Amino acid sequence: MAALVAGTPWMRIRVIPEFASPFIFRRHFRRNFSVRASIDSDAPVRVRFAPSPTGNLHVGGARTALFNYLFARSKGGKFVLRIEDTDLERSTRESEEAVLRDLAWLGLDWDEGPGVGGDYGPYRQSERNSMYKQYAEKLLESGHVYRCFCSNEELEKMKEIAELKKLPPVYSGKWATAADGEVEEELAKGTPYTYRFRVPKEGSLKINDLIRGEVSWKLDTVGDFVIMRSNGQPVYNFCVTVDDATMAISHVIRAEEHLPNTLRQALIYKALGFPMPSFAHVSLILAPDRSKLSKRHGATSVGQYRDMGYLPQAMVNYLALLGWGDGTENEFFTIDQLVEKFSIGRVNKSGAVFDSTKLRWMNGQHLRAIPFEELSQLIGEHWKSTGLLTESEGPFVDDAVQLLKDGIDLVTDSGTALSNLLSYPVHATLTSPEGRPIVEDKLSEVSAHLLAAYDSGELFGALEEGPAGWQKWVKGFGKTLKRKGKSLFMPLRVLLTGKLHGPDMGSSVILIYKAGNHGIVSPQAGFVTLKERFEILRQLDWEALNQDHPALESAATISN
């Protein structure tokens, strides 16, 4: 039998019976008591995250793991990972590996668990069956549990009768008072049976939840419940109680959907003589319509967000803010800052809405906080892997990242940003409603002077000198045309980039010029070089453009 470590900060149950009988279940005993808890706060903190390997790690599960991790680290305690794989039909090793991979990607390293080991293993429920059977037999011997030989048909009949009487669908207690001879007779016949826990018929149970405050249940709403199935497999609530107790878990931080389970688990703790841990039930993560977040609302798993290009530090930061805050206006936190600031007392009991727009914004904040060398490598590798560039590093990549980074929230956005820079939808822009005023402002004259600067080599000579050469040339070009400000830069932007909007025009044109000279852009990238752009300008029919015509599409659509 696993021993309990003395002095752990568990909540100790005090039983308050109506009369001074000991806490022993007898056949006709009037079971009536209430339960309160007190916390011993002097021993080490041990928390656990216990996922079921039946699918991908949901963002709700990831937040629960994060809160456990932050609580443990902030208290100098241990973060335990336990795999609850008793659902043999749905649990797979592939799902377990995916969950472990997602937790590792988030940076939530566990102190004990699969792949790490520890003093309280094994850490998979499927490997702990002998322990569950041992404690089930102990409960049977003490009278807290009895054998129930009811068939499925009998149980369904009980449920139907309860529904007709508008009563809770609780077990009637048929085998709770059976004579020993009746039990022996069924055992001799080989009748399948379950182990049912005797629940006091009256009274209440109260706990002080660290997030929700005092929570209470009436005992007559639950009925005698199964802890071991007829096939010998233990039931969830029994496994969890035995595991948390024998692993010396001090605080159980989990989703609020587990709150109803606390009643059954507390009764098992008491029956086995185990002190009860502190409980903290975290609110659900909600969709924008305030329903429970599900697949119908889009991506919900950590793996999906990883594949979409989100950074682990951004996911951790955003998940922490779903129901928690440090009391200031600050929303940007590193994992170390979260450990320093986290307090379970600041976790909100109200549901938190998952806002994918804010997550994207936050990812952009973390992306731009990455050291530039690392950011350039990250985006450069993406550009090469997606076939936009033939190289993933070098001066062109660095310059392109520097120019485009403020418009990139996800690494995957960088492909669109670079493709947009390299494209030249000038005809569509000129024929759009937004482009019409620029065409009418003697754009053909600006185009003619620009072509002359290109033909003379003056423009490319300036671009060869970099930003200083470009600025000097633009100033002289403006004086020649007697234009400045918007009346100069808007026509130049349209003619040189093919768009009405975009990043800094000078830097953009210099980068386009370099791309044409270095051969770094892949042939399939749809790149239009500066030389090709000038040939397009030379072929434009300005007379036709100046005539009234229906717009093909807006420039906003084009630039996107």
How does this structure look, described?
The protein has helices spanning 59-74, 93-106, 129-142, 152-164, 180-189, 236-246, 261-272, 302-307, 312-320, 335-341, 356-369, 372-385, 395-404, 413-422, 426-430, 436-440, 443-455, 458-464, 467-481, 486-497, 505-518, 530-539, 542-546, 555-559; strands spanning 11-17, 32-39, 46-49, 78-81, 145-148, 194-197, 202-209, 213-218, 225-228, 251-255, 278-282, 285-286, 352-353. With 560 residues, it is an alpha/beta fold. Among the domains are: 370-422; 426-546. Helix 1 (59-74) links the parallel strand 3 (46-49) and strand 4. Helix 1 (59-74) packs across helix 10 (335-341). Residues 1-39 and 550-560 have low confidence and may be disordered. Keywords: Aminoacyl-tRNA synthetase, ATP-binding, Chloroplast, Ligase, Mitochondrion, Nucleotide-binding, Plastid, Protein biosynthesis, Transit peptide.
Features:
single chain, 560 residues, alpha/beta, 4-stranded mixed β-sheet, 3-stranded antiparallel β-sheet, 13 strands, 11% strand, disordered N terminus, disordered C terminus
The strands making up the biggest β-sheet line up spatially as 1-2-7-8
Helix count from the secondary structure assignment: 24
| Radius of gyration from the alpha-carbon trace, in angstroms | 34 Å
Terminal-residue CA separation: 66 Å
How many runs of DSSP E, i.e. beta strands?
Answer: 13
Q: Into which percent range does the helicity of residues fall?
A: 40-55%
Report low-confidence residues grouped into runs of 5 or more.
Answer: 1-39, 550-560
Note the overall shape: elongated
